[in-house]
Design brief:
This protein has about 270 residues and is of the alpha+beta class. It is built from six helices and nine strands, in the order H-H-E-E-E-E-H-H-H-H-E-E-E-E-E.
């Protein structure tokens, strides 16, 4: 349904954007070093070799061809992403028109404090974003209360999860931070249905949250097994993605379907 000339033009555009991304990527070179709790270098190399091209509902990647409930044109690799259109609706409703370079860093720990202590990134603005994340998930904060409500969990019990006190099997928590530098805009809403990773996420982000949040957008949800929860904090050009083990009894079967779980940025 796309003319050959249009596809060739897209390929040339992608090549130009990736060359630009490589130049901009120099800004992030230092932050590519794994944190003390990051995966082995061989796994990191495998991740860096992944790529994906989207043409409407068809996606081509290093694994083959797939049909998805989406309608967008774009390309993605380990350090670059450009997209225009509607993303995979299984992961929520996301409309985007953007081009950006990106970098990811990871950490592990048995409490949120350990995750924050173990994460390292030299991208400009990271420390300020980290301070907002710490404040949002701090004891007694409004962020903890709102996230607990969206998960259908008791606030005090959820606070103990953050502090690592509800993890008898000592399964480590995970933190993935994604930093992006680019142009464009995006809006996203997650309604609570099961996504492609098995999580029932709710929340509002990007331009869709412009009237609600001044700086920190929150998505939260439980896994279909009830054994873990995921929290995503969108702070300026950083996404902080937490995965935490929980006891199935902590999260109710029917979580609060509130999508207004956005917090203003704090000094």
């Amino acid at each position: 349904w796309l003319k050959t000339s249009s596809v060739q033009a897209l390929i040339h555009l992608v090549a130009s954007l990736e060359n630009s991304a490589a130049m901009l990527g120099g800004l992030f070179d230092k932050s590519k070093s794994p944190s003390p709790a990051a995966d082995a270098s061989t796994a990191q190399q495998g991740s860096n070799s992944k790529w994906e091209v989207h043409l409407g509902p068809v996606s081509f990647d290093s694994q083959g061809v797939d049909l998805k409930p989406q309608f967008k044109v774009g390309v993605a690799s380990a350090n670059f992403e450009g997209e225009l259109g509607l993303g995979d609706i299984r992961d929520g409703v996301r409309l985007a028109a953007s081009v950006e370079t990106k970098v990811e860093v990871e950490s592990q720990g048995h409490s949120v404090q350990q995750l924050h202590d173990n994460i390292h990134c030299e991208t400009p603005g990271f420390q300020e974003a980290l301070n907002i994340a710490k404040s949002t998930l701090g004891a007694g904060g409004d962020g903890v209360r709102k996230i607990a409500e969206s998960l259908g969990a008791d606030t005090a019990a959820f606070q103990r999860v953050l502090e690592g006190e509800e993890n008898p099997e000592r399964v480590p928590m995970q933190l993935l931070v994604k930093a992006a530098l680019g142009l464009g805009m995006a809006a996203e809403v997650k309604f609570g249905w099961e996504d492609t990773s098995g999580y029932h996420m709710v929340g509002v982000g990007g331009q869709a949250a412009a009237g609600v949040s001044l700086g920190c957008n929150i998505f939260a949800g439980r896994h279909k097994t009830g054994t873990s929860v995921k929290i995503i904090l969108g702070i300026t050009n950083f996404d902080f993605e937490y995965v935490m083990p929980v006891q199935p009894s902590m999260v109710l079967d029917k979580a609060n379907d509130s999508r207004e779980i956005c917090m203003p940025a704090q000094d």
